[in-house]
Design goal:
Number of helices of chain B: 5
Number of strands of chain A: 0
Low-confidence stretches of chain A: none
Strand order of the largest sheet of chain B: 2-1-3-4
Number of strands of chain B: 4
Structural class of chain A: mainly alpha
Largest sheet of chain A: none
Helix content of chain A: 55-70%
Radius of gyration of chain A: 24 Å
Distance between the termini of chain B: 70 Å
Number of helices of chain A: 15
Largest interface: A-B, 78 and 64 residues
Strand content of chain A: under 5%
Shape of chain B: elongated
Low-confidence stretches of chain B: 183-189
Oligomer: heterodimer
Number of domains of chain B: 2
Largest sheet of chain B: 4 strands, antiparallel
Helix content of chain B: 40-55%
Shape of chain A: globular
Mean pLDDT of chain A: 95
Strand content of chain B: 15-25%
Mean pLDDT of chain B: 91
Radius of gyration of chain B: 25 Å
Order of helices and strands of chain B: HHEEHHEHE
């Protein structure tokens, strides 16, 4: 008869804790660092870069008025706003005589970033440019600037030039010519990390956007959406016909709050994700079409691409290439 | 020996990166959490992440159209004419194109009230100066105009969004630039 060895209860608890910790560490590693194809980040870079480029072109129309020392945002007043704060903007140190040369350099960098040229450098510069413009004109900022800054930050951390970029074209050309023999990796841990950061930041945005609405009585009564629709300064298309179908703005208000508040949970469910993101696209396109904030609406939907599976899209891209 | 050191450095690097990621996510979530009303705990967390959030331009509330979307704000201006009716206008002006630039002017009128009184006065003076340069005027007065959205019932009763009673005007004061403006009246802002 064999005597069964009994383990000490403490040992068994420790083993169980150890196993749980190991599983947690492995899950953490998979979540943040499992190598990922940078295809979607390349697409996000292309679209975000285009948006940054457009933003700078629009600033060109009123550069002196907004960025001049004595413009609509007087330099000394803005510096006082940032006193003893950790805020960076190279515009705080640039004289009026250099406004245009610096601005043109920024536009060129934005165009290079969009095309994916020298992306390792231009992605970091794009982020610094984005926050410099935004922080120089604090009163003229709105949601678009916040999201553009967020996207450029994460793209600066990502290998966003490893797909859909001029860098890739140059690398392929050099390889064909035998000037380069090394093969670039096809998947990156940093791509996963940047995608996760975009996804989690989106969750934070919607979570607080939804929960902050719960502080307001008009989001509960449904009048809030009507107040947005009836705001003539935002309105680009007249929706006042909804005054005769009031259930509709009330419904949109309730759906908006529910969708925003629960996005953080629902978007991680693979089955629900397409539906959750489709509602988001509809909402942001609505903001673009009816409130005239296309820049904000579009940049938010660009961030959704971080949820797309690059394996599926790579296969679709390859199929399209073969057909062509 | 070198391989061992490399492995150790990798482990330390991984741990530092993981800690940074955890702190970054905390910083992103805590920034909007501390918008009033907030507990002292949330405020302490916010202060902890503030330098980091400010440095990376992440110090945002994300309270879009919250807690309640209300009246929009416009800046009205009036330039007294010599013996004639004063020139009047307000911004943002819907004729400003492209729309992104319109929103920049909209934010000038909407956001300036979030700053302290001294900064507010400097900004309003800057608006007045730009208008004065544009219209080659040396005196200009500004007003804050609140445009209250009409209710559903009001519209059903025949009201319109731009009925005069939906605008509330507060005079902010007059600005005199006769000593500052040069004779050329160089114009820089044309979109008001």
């Amino acid at each position: 008869m064999t005597e069964q060895r009994r383990t000490h209860p403490l040992t068994s608890v420790l083993t169980s804790v150890r196993r749980s910790v190991d599983q947690g560490v492995a899950a953490w590693h998979r979540f943040w660092f499992e190598p990922l194809d940078p295809l979607m980040l390349g697409v996000i870079r292309l679209l975000t870069g285009w948006m940054l480029f457009y933003n700078l072109l629009v600033w060109s129309l009123q550069l002196e008025a907004f960025f001049g020392r004595n413009g609509l945002q007087p330099l000394e007043a803005v510096k006082r706003v940032y006193e003893s704060r950790f805020v960076f903007s190279f515009w705080l140190w640039i004289d009026d005589q250099y406004l245009w040369p610096v601005h043109i350099a920024c536009v060129i960098v934005a165009a290079m970033f969009c095309m994916g040229a020298a992306t390792r450098v231009t992605s970091i510069l794009a982020f610094l440019i984005t926050i410099s413009y935004s922080q120089r004109v604090p009163v003229a900022n709105f949601g678009f600037d916040q999201i553009l800054g967020m996207m450029c930050l994460y793209l600066a951390l990502a290998p966003c030039g490893a797909a859909m970029s001029a860098d890739c074209v140059i690398r392929r050309w050099r390889r064909r010519k035998g000037m380069e023999t090394s093969v670039a990796p096809v998947r990156f841990a940093s791509a996963r990390m940047a995608s996760r950061l975009i996804q989690l930041h989106l969750c934070a945005i919607y979570f607080w956007s939804g929960f902050s609405k719960l502080k307001g009585p008009t989001w509960w009564t449904g009048e809030a959406m009507w107040n947005v629709i009836a705001n003539q300064e935002y309105q680009t298309i007249d929706l006042t016909w909804m005054a005769w179908t009031p259930w509709l703005p009330y419904l949109i208000a309730h759906v908006t709050v529910a969708w925003e508040a629960f996005f953080i949970v629902l978007v991680w469910n693979r089955r629900l994700r397409p539906f959750v993101l489709a509602v988001g696209v509809a909402m942001h396109f609505g903001i673009g079409a009816f409130l005239g904030m296309w820049t904000f609406g579009l940049i938010m939907t660009f961030a959704y691409l971080s949820f797309a599976d690059p394996v599926i899209w790579r296969a679709r891209l390859d199929t399209m290439k073969h057909r062509l | 020996m070198i391989a061992g050191l490399k492995k150790l450095l990798c482990k330390v690097g991984y741990a530092v990166l993981s800690l940074w990621l955890a702190f970054h996510v905390f910083a992103v979530f805590i920034s909007p959490a501390a918008m009033p009303p907030a507990s002292p705990l949330l405020e302490d967390g916010y202060r902890l992440a503030l330098p980091y959030n400010e440095a990376l331009f992440l110090n945002h509330g994300y309270h879009y159209f919250a807690p309640d979307p209300g009246a929009s704000t416009l800046i009205g201006w009036e330039i007294p004419g010599a013996g004639e009716a004063p020139a009047v206008g307000r911004f943002p002006n819907v004729s400003i194109r492209p729309r992104l630039l319109y929103h920049r002017y909209f934010m000038l009128a909407e956001n300036v009230w979030a700053f302290d009184d001294e900064i507010q006065q400097d900004m309003l003076k800057a608006y007045a100066r730009q208008l004065a340069e544009q219209f080659r005027a040396d005196r200009i007065s500004l007003s804050r105009i609140s445009h209250v959205p009409s209710s559903i019932m009001r519209l059903q009763a025949g009201g319109k969004l731009d009925d005069p009673e939906t605008y509330q005007k507060d005079v902010l004061g007059a600005f005199d630039f006769s000593a500052e403006l040069d004779a050329s009246g160089s114009s820089v802002a044309r979109n008001f």
